[in-house]
Amino acid sequence: MTLPHIIAISGASGSGKSLFTETLCDELRQIDTDVLVLCEDHYYRDQTHLEMSEREKTNYDHPNAFEHELLAQHLRDLKAGKSIQYPHYCFKTHTRLQKLTEVTAHRVVVVEGILLLASPELMPLFDLKVYMDTPLDICLLRRIQRDLTERGRTLDSVAKQYEKTVKPMYHQFIQPCRHKANIVVTQGGKNRPALEVIKAHIRNTSKL
Ligand code: CTP
Q1: Contact 151, 91 (CB under 8 A)
Q2: Domain 5-205, CATH among 3.40.50.300, 3.40.640.10, 3.40.50.150, 3.40.228.10
Q3: Residue of 72, 117, 155, 188 with fewest CB within 10 Å of its CB?
Q4: In this structure, what DSSP letter does residue 41 have?
Q5: Dihedral over Cα of 108, 112, 117, 120: its sign
């Protein structure tokens, strides 16, 4: 079997990684490409042993919040043609869910997340690195809307978290990784030429 081609889609929280990934993968599937999506969010560390008040204090925008070593192991397993069981995460309870999902190796694996390019262990595993370069005010508006409707947050908690960790960690860890990307995408999921370039690259390099 051909080794999987692993693509990282990174960028700030609210930069449009999920929409871009979904659009890319839908279009790849339409041309019969076998593609698997993994989310870095699923690899947030398990905090079941901590009280809720403790979980709320965690800095979720620091690389240490993620079990990158498990994600790296899973990517190595997929590269070796093995199946993996990836975890699931709940943003309301700030911890892992009980369930695991087993997936087999696919031709293309797309991983999306804020700190993928900041991990020295993950970086060598990516065949293509994409950075979503979206203005921070747009990212913040999207984050507010999403956190209030989908993640059970209040406007006050979103504002406090943004000032305390989201914004400083973006400047310390996410934005400095922009230069490590092979492709920088402006205008998010609506950037049709960027999608076409990435699809062409995948077609040419993953021997589909
Ligand atoms: N986060 C949180 N509470 C947790 C775990 C994570 O608030 N218990 C937040 C972190 O602050 C981090 C964000 O979740 O900034 C990461 O998810 P994000 O990148 O915003 O979500 P995606 O939907 O993957 O990305 P995009 O908005 O770019 O599509």
Answers
A1: yes
A2: 3.40.50.300
A3: 155
A4: G
A5: negative
Which of helix, strand or coil describes residue 71?
Answer: helix
Taking CA atoms only, the protein residue closest to ligand 1 atom 16 is 13
Cross-strand bridge partners of residue 123: none
Ranges of H-type helices in 32-117: 52-55, 68-79
Task: Provide the b/e sequence for 31-57 (b: ≥16 CB within 10 Å).
Answer: eebbbbbbbbebbbbebeeeeeeeeee
Ligand 1 contacts CB of residue 127 (under 6 A): no
- At 131-188, the pLDDT tens digits run 999 999 999 999 999 999 998 899 999 999 999 999 999 999 999 999 999 999 998 8
Task: Give me the interface pTM, i.e. the ipTM.
Answer: 0.95
Tell which phi-psi region holds residue 106, choosing left (phi > 0), alpha (psi between -120 and 50) or beta. beta
Domain assignments of the chain as residue spans, ordered by start: 5-205
Neighbouring CB atoms inside 10 A of 122's CB total: 24
Ligand 1 within 6 A of CB of 189: no
| pLDDT above 70 (res 208) | no
Atom 3, ligand 1: residue with shortest CA distance: 91
pLDDT at 189: 78
Helix (H, G, I), strand (E, B) or coil at 176: helix
